[in-house]
Amino acid sequence: MKKSAYNEEEVLSMLQQEETQRQAFEKIVNKYSEQLYWQVRRMVNSHDDANDLMQNVFIKAWLNIDNFRGESRISTWLYRIASNECITFINKKKNEQNISLSDPDAEIAREIEGDAYFNGKSAEGLLQRALSTLPEKQRIVFTLKYFKEMKYETMSKILDTSVGALKASYHIAVKKIATFVEEDI
Amino acid sequence: MKKEDEILKKCGTGNPFIVPEGYFETFTTRIMDSLPEKKMSPITKIKPTMIIWHRRRLSWLYMAAAFFGLVVTFSFVYKKDNRHILSAQEQQAKVNVQQQLSDQDIEMMVDNSHMDDYTLYQYLSDAK
To answer: Does the ipTM surpass 0.90?
Structure first.
């Protein structure tokens, strides 16, 4: 679907009317699906998992759209839903697979290397492998800051965490990733 | 941040992933087709509660009891509000301090504190 002009105020107004609500939601999906997909994909690595999660995110957003009061931007709200979905998914997967704590890095590396839609040999691939070793919340913070250059204040609204904690979390993530990258090269 | 610059230099911000061909072109249509039908939540109208006054039986005793109840409730709510205001002020002060901390301050705290990552994170996030 071709990207059309998007006006947040207009979309918010359309959401209030039953006859235009679905059309407004379509504009939201069209506007945010790609950027949300890449955020989710960096969190879960696999395309199939990212695809399933994206469907869950938009279905949840749709079913709860009447409760959206417009106190934050639609994007902030969607990122919040997506982050929660990712954290729940990763924790569930960890429990199901019962990943051995002795060598979780090898397990993660094997999993993402096996994805047909991943170029693990590139420098970006190395960074993604490093990213996958982080705890899920540090992973979200690093992804939002490093790739999207999101402000800590916005991140604070998405993750319901203080700015100070986010700064500390990012700093710790950067140190871990730098160590991983240095050891690999 | 020095370490961040090193990562940027070595790995950049490129994307190691690809998606199946035409994935994003059909994404919106697929999502819209999968959405369940839904009616907008009707505005909940609060029906006024019917209060039956037994006027003839309402004695001075009842009125005195009601007045006493109001006084007790009011004093309780007033005290609770004061505590709430204090707590909000403390919270605001904490947020201000956290926002004033520069990246360098945070880095120094993380590097020099004798707390592990998780404890420090919990402390800074009020264990959220």
So the answer is: no
